[in-house]
Design a protein that fits this description.
The complex is a heterodimer of chains A (457) and B (456).
Chain A (H helix, E strand, L loop, with lengths): L1 H4 L5 H53 L4 E10 L19 H17 L2 H12 L7 H5 L6 H11 L7 E7 L2 H8 L15 H12 L3 E5 L2 H4 L13 H32 L4 H15 L2 H15 L7 H25 L3 H9 L4 H12 L1 H16 L3 H5 L20 H9 L4 H36 L1
Antiparallel strand pairs in A: 1-2, 1-3
Helix pairs in contact in A: 2-19, 4-6, 10-13, 10-16, 10-18, 11-13, 12-13, 13-16, 14-15, 16-19, 18-19
Chain B lengths: L1 H27 L10 H38 L2 H4 L3 H16 L9 H39 L6 H39 L4 H6 L3 E2 L11 E2 L2 H32 L2 H16 L2 H23 L8 H26 L2 H9 L4 H30 L2 H6 L17 H9 L8 H35 L1
Antiparallel strand pairs in B: 1-2
Helix pairs in contact in B: 1-2, 1-5, 2-5, 2-6, 4-5, 6-16, 8-11, 8-13, 9-11, 10-11, 11-13, 12-13, 13-16, 15-16
The chains are: A mainly alpha (457), B mainly alpha (456).
Chain lengths: 457, 456
């Protein structure tokens, strides 16, 4: 601009030209810096997204194969030469129920004494008659609990004696590893879990279609098992988690909503309210393991509640999720326009009526979201449960919330520590998929319900 | 069975009382006149009156019923048994309770045991019937008293609302009770621990070596410093990962990204916040650890698969969404005018962010950072699985470390013997952890609050 006003070069214009030049020169580096800054931002987002992707790809790629498992269909002959037992007792005239029960128990004991391993072994050998395998090798490719399942089948139906029926049997964890290639197939014999003939046998059965990869439904229906790892399932942990979630919903939601309503709608502004407020915000940030310590000291040591019980776990998780639910409900209450309250109050409703008849119904979607956030948080929590003994090995589905039990995340913790790493890495990932699936379902339900409810109102 | 009877009784009492109160208030309503409160409030008030004494009776029974049955058993035992103390008396009482419950006991039963069991069973039936009768009777009495009170001018609504108010107040007291419970339980158990080990040895000891409790009480060294060191190391690595990524993500999403990108990227990043920590731990153990060890090997560095680095990096990933969503909120609270002013003076967008928006948002971001640090210090499962548990003071990031939280889990799992220093130390550690996070949280919440007020 200076050039226009005074065409002659002067010191003034010199300086301003210089300044302009400096700004121009600086501009390119400033723009470069701008670009770099943007690139950092994009890189950060890229990194965050990449972490999400890597995490899910890793879990899915490891876990999905565990949902199918090596299963063989064998023709099992209930050989009277091996199963040498008397016919199953039937109730007789003049026999008391107690005597009949004793006779039945005696008979079942006899059945248990039968060498069921021989039955299984014969079935395996018949399936591959041209293979040279000894007893141990043949039995090493089938899960150890299959013989008990055969026995139970026979107890339920003694008429099977002398018959041949096709039976689905689960392959052992080692056979499953070998066939899926979870273990390096080129390793020398000494480092393989299965002997060479057993590996050849498994390969041959797979080749002939007698062994196949079938959907492993027992992951959902069986309980945990140490002796028969291939048949271990999540049923016990699932029911334990379910009980805990019930306790959380029954306790944390009403108490949380009530305290949020009190703090937001009724509480006078005084020091006590401030204290409660600071308290809740602080509790929300207390490490979860501290709640575990509280549970161990108060519920277990002081009140003498049973160890490993879902009830205690539920109580601990309730205390842990309470602040989350309170904070989320309060923000939902705060979002209700004051005009609603003023209208109700203006028409003569009391404060309680205003809150319970007009404000709370409007916040229902918000409370629902708060509940689900809290429940999802509780569902995934592990650390406090370890301190109240929920990491015990429990091979049963808990019948009541006071029975010993474990929980889904704790089951993941237990499985990842199993010695049979090759097999349990996949099994753990499968359990993680189930857990994440549950959490995603919960959140999806929340989003669905919220959009529906919000649209209606 | 018993609890079902109790529940049915309470429900019946409640329903009956509500119905009676409701219809009575209709009855007393003057023709053409009006009640002060609507009939459902009269019903609710009557129900409350009827329930309170019944609940009181059941509460007393729950508190003292056990003591009473115990005293009854002891009075029924022969003197040579009831004079036994401690474990043997407990055992005898347990046997008799089992006999009375009908499950039976192991071994031969003594005649006196059978007699006592029989008597106990009768006592239990009798006392339960008594309690039920008392609850029902008192409830009915209160019900009729409440029914007599019903009159057109009775302020039933106000009374019901007062009850509701106190219920709400009681619910919000639960949060305070929780804090009191945490502090009290941690303090009492920690003080018991300090009767075994002096606080100086605990807080300033440099060796962590608690022997197994079978070796003998009081043996072993309980130095906190190696654990604290490991905690700080892991937390520092985590923050070095999370802060740049989280903050830059927040800046990009709040300042640069178009709404469409923002609306898709934000929820995806927040998925990371919803993943259970045990999953991160497994991820660290199975994927990140071996990956880092491989990198270390190709560089000629000794990095173990479970190390401070593995745990720290994965914990950082976990904290990214925490930092990014908190910072995002804070950055969006900076008034638009400040931003527009800077842009209007010719600053580029990045200069505006670096020189105007970030300084203005700094207190809030510091608050978010402190909250994230407190998360990192208290995080348990990732370090349990991926840090390797080796409590020594050393600065090698590729070596295994142990943290406060890992040690709490190790000392307290599977063992509920609350008398040995080996398990009590968990509470002293918990107290330390609680104190550290409390200070961080209070400071952070204070800063964030102040900051929010500044722009509201």
């Amino acid at each position: 601009m200076a050039d226009v006003i005074s065409p002659q070069p002067s010191r003034e214009t010199d300086r301003s030209a210089e300044r302009l030049k400096r700004i121009r020169d600086g501009l390119s580096s400033r723009h470069a810096r701008e670009k770099r800054f943007r690139a950092y931002g994009l890189a950060a987002i890229g990194a965050a997204l990449a972490f999400v992707a890597i995490l899910f790809v890793m879990i899915l790629s490891k876990g999905l194969p565990a949902f199918t498992q090596a299963t063989m269909t064998l023709d099992v002959f209930f050989d009277p030469a091996i199963i040498k037992v008397e016919p199953k007792p039937v109730p007789q005239q003049g026999q008391s129920p107690a005597e009949f029960r004793r006779a039945t128990l005696d008979w079942e004991r006899q059945v248990t004494m039968v060498n069921w391993n021989r039955v299984v072994e014969t079935a395996i050998k018949n399936a591959a008659p041209d293979m040279e395998v000894d007893t141990r090798q043949a039995l090493s490719i089938v899960e150890t609990n299959e013989r008990f399942l055969l026995r139970d089948r026979f107890v339920a139906d003694p008429g099977l004696l002398g018959k041949t029926i096709p039976v689905d049997m689960l392959g052992s964890a080692n056979a499953d590893n070998w066939l899926k290639g979870n273990i390096d197939r080129s390793l020398p014999d000494a480092q393989q879990q299965l002997s060479a003939p057993a590996r050849a046998l498994a390969d041959k059965l797979l080749e002939e279609g007698k062994m196949r990869f079938a959907f492993a439904s027992h992951i959902f229906t069986n309980v945990d098992s140490r002796s028969a790892p291939a048949s271990a399932g999540l049923a016990g942990a699932f029911v334990g988690s379910l009980y805990m979630m019930l306790v959380v919903i029954v306790l944390a939601v009403p108490i949380g909503v009530a305290s949020a309503v009190y703090l937001e709608e009724f509480a006078p502004k005084n020091r006590l309210t401030d204290l409660i407020e600071v308290n809740i915000n602080n509790l929300a940030a207390v490490p979860s393991i501290v709640f575990g310590l509280l549970g161990a000291a108060v519920f277990i040591n002081y009140f003498r509640l049973p160890l490993s019980a879902p009830l205690v776990g539920g109580l601990v998780l309730t205390l842990m999720t309470l602040p989350t639910i309170i904070i989320a409900t309060r923000s939902a209450l705060r979002a209700v326009p004051p005009s609603l309250r003023q209208a109700a109050l203006g028409l003569g409703a009391s404060r309680t009526q205003t809150v319970f008849h007009h404000v709370l119904p409007v916040t229902f979607p918000g409370i629902l979201t708060a509940t689900i956030i809290g429940v999802a948080q509780a569902l995934g929590e592990t650390a406090p449960l370890l301190l109240i003994g929920m990491n015990a090995f429990v091979a049963a589905v808990p019948a009541t919330p006071l029975d010993q039990s474990t929980a889904l995340p704790v089951q993941i913790y237990l499985w990842q520590g199993n010695e049979n790493r090759n097999f349990f890495e996949a099994r753990t990932s499968a359990a993680i998929i189930v857990l994440l699936g549950l959490m995603i379902t919960l959140n999806a339900i929340a989003i669905f319900l919220r959009t529906r409810l919000e649209r209606r109102s | 069975m018993n609890s079902a009877i109790v529940a049915v009784l309470l429900l019946v009492l409640m329903g009956l009382a509500y119905q009676i109160g409701w219809s009575r208030s209709h009855g007393v309503a003057p023709t053409g006149g009006r009640l002060h409160s609507r009939p459902n409030y009269h019903g609710a008030l009557t129900a409350i009156w009827a329930l309170v004494p019944a609940l009181l009776v059941f509460g007393l029974w729950a508190l003292f019923g056990d003591t009473a049955s115990r005293a009854f058993i002891i009075s029924n035992l022969p003197p040579e048994v009831s004079s036994l103390g401690g474990q043997e008396l407990e055992g005898a009482i347990r046997r008799i309770r089992q006999i009375a419950s009908g499950f039976g006991v192991v071994g031969e039963t003594q005649p006196y045991e059978n007699l006592a069991g029989q008597a106990l069973r009768e006592f239990q039936t009798f006392s339960f019937a008594l309690v039920i009768a008392a609850a029902a009777g008192l409830g009915a009495l209160a019900l009729f008293a409440a029914r007599r009170r019903i009159a057109p001018q009775l302020r039933a609504r106000n009374e019901v609302e007062r009850v509701v108010f106190f219920l709400l107040l009681a619910c919000s007291a639960v949060a305070i009770l929780t804090t009191v419970g945490i502090v009290a339980s941690l303090l009492t158990e920690a003080i018991r621990f300090f009767t075994f080990v002096s606080p100086v040895d605990f807080f300033f000891g440099t060796v962590w070596n608690p022997r197994f409790s079978s070796v003998g009480a009081g043996s072993g060294e309980y130095g906190l410093l190696p654990l604290l060191w490991g905690t700080l190391m892991v937390a520092t690595i985590a923050m070095l990962v999370a802060l740049p990524i989280g903050l830059m993500t927040a800046i990009y999403l709040s300042q640069y990204a178009p709404a469409k990108v923002r609306n898709t990227v934000k929820p995806v990043v927040e998925i990371l916040a919803g993943i259970p920590t045990i999953v991160y731990g497994f991820f660290a153990l199975v994927t990140v650890g071996p990956f880092l060890a491989g990198i270390g090997q190709s560089l000629g560095l000794q990095i173990r698969a479970t190390s401070a680095m593995t745990a720290g990096i994965v914990m950082g990933i976990m904290i990214i969404p925490f930092i990014s969503s908190l910072s995002d909120d804070i950055l969006r609270q900076v008034p638009r005018a400040m931003r527009d002013g800077s842009l209007g003076l010719g600053a580029t967008q990045s200069e505006t962010i670096k020189r105007v928006i970030l300084p203005a948002a700094l207190p809030g971001i510091v608050g978010a950072f402190l909250l994230a640090v407190s998360r990192a210090i208290g995080e348990t499962m990732i370090v349990v699985l991926a840090a390797g548990n080796s409590p020594y003071l050393r600065l090698n990031l590729g070596e295994a470390v142990s943290t406060v939280t890992v040690t709490i889990v190790n000392q307290l799992t599977g063992d509920t013997d609350f008398a040995s220093p080996q398990s009590l130390v968990a509470f002293a550690l918990g107290l330390t952890l609680f104190a550290m996070t409390l200070v961080l949280n209070v400071v952070a919440l204070y800063i964030v609050r102040r900051y929010r007020e500044q722009y509201e």
